[in-house]
Amino acid sequence: MSAAGAVVVSALVLYLSFFGFGLTLPPLGPAFNPVTGAWTMAADAASPSSETLHLPGVVQPVRVVLEANGTSHIVAQTDHDLFLAMGYIHARYRLFQMDLLRRQGAGRLSEVFGKAAIDSDTFELQLGLLRTAQAEWAKLPPSDPSRAALQAYADGVNDRIDEAEREHQLPAMFTLSNYKPARWTPIDSLLVKGDMTQTLNFTDTPLVMALLEKSLGPDLTSEWFPVLPPNQQSPYEPGPYAPSSGVAGIPPLTSPGSFDAVVTSAEADAATALYQRLESLPAGLIAHGGASNNWAVAGSKTANGGALLAGDPHLHLTLPAIWYQVSLDSPAYHVSGVSIPGTPVVLIGHNQHIAWSLTDAQNQQTFFYDEQEDSAHPGMYLWNGTWRKYTFANYDIPVAGGATQHLTVKYSVHGPVINERGLTTSVWWSGNIPSQDLGVLLKVDQAADFQDFRNALKGWYSPTHNFVYADDRGNIGLISAGYYPQVAKGVPWLPMPGTGEYDITGTIPYDQIPQVYNPPTGVVWSANQRQVANDYPYYIGTASNFFDPGFRANEIARTLNEPNKKFTAIDMMALQTDTRDYLAGEMVPMLLQALNGEQLSATEQAARDSLAAWDDHMDVTSAAASVWWVFWQEYLSATFDPWWKSHNVKVDRGELADALTQDLDTWTLRDATNPVFTLVGATQNAGDMMKQAFHTTISLMTTRLGKDPKTWNWGRIHQRTLQNLALISGLDYGPVPERGDAYTPLAAPDFPSTHGPSWRMVIDWGSQSFSGVYPGGQSENPASEWYTDRAQTWLDGHYFPMLDATRASTAMGAVTWTLQS
Length: 821
What we know:
The chain has 821 residues and is of the alpha+beta class. The chain has a domain at 582-616 and 621-717. Helix content is 34%, strand content 19%. It is built from 23 helices and 31 strands. The strands form six sheets. An eleven-stranded mixed beta sheet has the order 1-31-2-3-7-8-9-10-18-19-23. Strands 4, 5, 24, 27, 28, 29 and 30 form a seven-stranded antiparallel beta sheet that branches. A six-stranded mixed beta sheet has the order 14-15-16-17-11-21. Helix 16 (582-595) packs across helix 20 (686-705). The two termini are 38 Å apart.
């Protein structure tokens, strides 16, 4: 298909179902206009050439080097021009993506996509991303450098919008949707930041826990979904810890496994109504656990004496990609890495002296409150012994093809009211605390040492991240930065009464949040495991959702703590693409032991023998990998499904796979006669259940994959797909057979796997070599060669060098733009 033809088709299907709304097509006449039609989007599909571009906002000429793969290098004589050029470049290649992100956060999708988006818009306005962004902008002092950066960035975006409209090169989606992008504002960048915060840490877990407690009862719920993880974890910060005396009125975490509250029927009904509403929202608005890896190795443990750092945040693998790769050089900034289109910062990367990467840290930042009301006090709620009036905010939601919707949002002291079916439920969410996280990242971009880095992160609120660190002097560190809300009493993993006694009273003091610098081991790591040991004195979440099962972290720790090993950058790359399943390493020997003496068919014996010879690696050609994974799912099902049925549990068991996997891992290794294995009419143990699950596994695989276990390769049942944002398969990359699983360092969960390492970066300070790769490409245009050109390199586990502007300018295929007024 020609580039022009491809872009018309791609733009058409992109409109069909953005965010899964099932939208209808607008009139197609404008798409075929020979001057302004959708085909003009193909203009950026052609290879760019060196040229001079005129932007009215530029003060001094700016040099932009574009590598052959689209990586952008911006060299500016002033910081203002640096951020203006960054806004221009982002908008040049990702304007429609940026527009959708700000519309999502502002509750303005319905204005373009009609009534199918009303639920999303209503929820976003209730949650308050727009309100928070406006407050953040209003609180920025005129002299704050981040205020200037946000404004200059917005000016650059608007320069591109003006240029694209003038030259009829707006992305085709604007033409097909019959609208033009509004002017970009600094608040829009803060909305994009809010979108990412929501995706990573707004969770419905307290609602889920309420439903579980009501159906399973407090005893089973507290045993199966405890506060502290039941299985072996590998905290990077093992203590000893200071007493929890830093927040007034907060008792120490003395009995973390107990449920001292009983969910009433009214509370369960309210939780059910809100849970169902949140679950019906488009995917991505509610966080369901996160996954990422990062680690650092001190110079004392490397082959060349320089520190090493590796990071790979695991996010939704989309086309266009979440990230845009860039390097920035100006009087105050010399930084390289990846940015999020819509924001003027490098989020993960390195500067001249330090490097850093992020993983999602464990910290409950969403709390639900049931407000106490009385018919004698209409429009009021009881708080701290007095009746208070709710406050209100009013919004209009324009709807394409329909009447404007009017929304009134009600607020208590805890936050917005988001449910009034039965009990009135409000939500406290850390993402609604006005913060200057973009300003924090600008300071990180400039940091020269760990003290600068640590001082910058004092201002980081949300989402809570594990910021790993390594510098050019061989030092390493890790800080789990964020706002850690603490309550004086109550059960924060359940909805709590809103009467005042259970309110959040503050946050863990910065000196007492999880953090290390140059530990004696010479290594630091995080992979969403519990960051601290079980005697950490503060509450930071529960094992049910706020902690990962810990298997990736355990495998990373096992590798990095290999005695007498001197690590290289190649070792870091190998660990990022490691396919060893730590859980399999624990469980397969237990399964083989259970099968001793069991009567097996020829097929079952062949499958058992393949497991006995297996090295626990989830490789595409491994049949044992398939047997293991299907077995584990059947083991979970055989153990827990009878309880789900007998107790009429309304929560999908799959949503709780991480927590139940931790339980089953623990019981199989240390509590094989746990009552969970006891079914009606028969007393069983873990071994009995494993045998039952194994027989079921082989029967299922024989039916689905044939009678010969040698052909049951992992790649037959496990593929990877890079999904275009509209979920239209014709614009996806894949599916292709892929190694790894949810528990391997090379994270590849689900079938097909659409989440995983959204950016892999390895920093070698000893050799001054920097490498990175992300799936997809720099352009959002499906007709562009920069749409998927990095995908195969990423799938193969290879990397591109992260060049500076000088080296990039002499690289093959590079072009240079000069931006001037």
